[in-house]
User: Which sequence fits this backbone?
């Protein structure tokens, strides 16, 4: 490890970073937030908050109260793709908060493992990806590919090891910070660039708006929906997803995106044992996205369908 890294760690105490925005920005540039290994770096991760405001979690009745910053603001919606995407980020964070507030005591107290995450682990996981996405947007290096050498699973396992001891208050602060960072990063781009495909090589055919909604909105809500399914409330999971799906499909208006939404719905119905609804949705999804045929037999969300002849015919 280089000497500059050790010098920066010794210099950047958590308190100084909070009080000095310039040092905060330097630390954010040089320290890969997902790669902290000491108590100092852990403290930095939890406490850092993008300018101009530091957010504090509000705990009420065992859950987290809505923070006004994450409520949908009609004044910001002017029909632009950028404003719609930012609004979706805010709404997704609010739905995360509502999900946490609705947890049963058993769900709140459950300790997760690498193989079976708790809802708190999932909250940290989805917001880790928000924070890393914000970092990629802040430093795209004219098309820098953000893909890492390690696999997604290896990266997820590493983050779990570093964060599974977070308290609920720390996890909420982390989620607030990540959401704020994502909004600040996206706001820095002109409107035309947010909706422009191929802006960076690593985006491929997608725009920043599509990439953001897929990775920072839909990804988050799919994981949050699992807490509803765990307690047998499939309708609650679908209600949460449907509350944002229509606007999300405005940002990603392709048949592929619609097929992905149907696949996700099929997963929820399969998990609550409603195969008669899950199978037609899955058939429609696979017709548009045959690439999912390879993944579907491995997808644990579809485990209740795997033994069925109808399912085997769909993936043949």
Assistant:
């Amino acid at each position: 490890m280089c000497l500059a890294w050790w010098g920066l760690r010794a210099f950047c105490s958590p308190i100084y970073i909070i009080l000095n925005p310039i040092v905060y920005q330097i630390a954010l540039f040089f320290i890969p937030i997902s790669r902290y290994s000491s108590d100092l770096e852990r403290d930095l991760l939890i406490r850092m908050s993008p300018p101009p405001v530091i957010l504090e979690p509000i705990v009420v009745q065992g859950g987290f109260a809505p923070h006004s910053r994450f409520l949908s603001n009609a004044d910001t919606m002017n029909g632009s793709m950028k404003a719609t995407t930012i609004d979706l980020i805010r709404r997704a964070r609010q739905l995360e908060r509502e999900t946490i507030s609705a947890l049963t005591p058993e769900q709140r107290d459950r300790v997760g493992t690498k193989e079976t995450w708790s809802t708190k682990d999932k909250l940290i996981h989805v917001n880790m990806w928000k924070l890393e996405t914000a970092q990629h947007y802040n430093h795209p290096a004219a098309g820098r590919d953000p893909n890492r050498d390690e696999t997604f699973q290896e990266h997820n396992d590493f983050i779990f090891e570093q964060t599974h001891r977070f308290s609920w208050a720390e996890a909420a602060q982390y989620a607030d910070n990540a959401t704020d960072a994502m909004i600040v990063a996206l706001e820095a781009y002109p409107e035309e660039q947010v909706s422009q495909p191929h802006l960076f090589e690593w985006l491929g055919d997608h725009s920043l708006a599509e990439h953001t909604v897929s990775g920072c909105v839909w990804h988050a809500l799919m994981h949050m929906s699992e807490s509803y399914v765990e307690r047998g409330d499939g309708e609650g999971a679908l209600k949460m997803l449907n509350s944002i799906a229509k606007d999300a499909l405005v940002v990603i208006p392709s048949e592929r995106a619609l097929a992905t939404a149907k696949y996700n719905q099929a997963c929820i119905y399969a998990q609550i044992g409603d195969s008669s609804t899950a199978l037609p949705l899955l058939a429609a999804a696979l017709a548009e996205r045959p690439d999912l045929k390879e993944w579907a037999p491995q997808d644990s969300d579809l485990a209740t369908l795997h033994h069925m002849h109808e399912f085997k015919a769909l993936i043949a």
Residues 1-77 have pLDDT under 50 and may be disordered. The two ends are 50 Å apart (CA to CA). The beta strands are 59-60, 63-64. The first helix runs from residue 3 to 11.
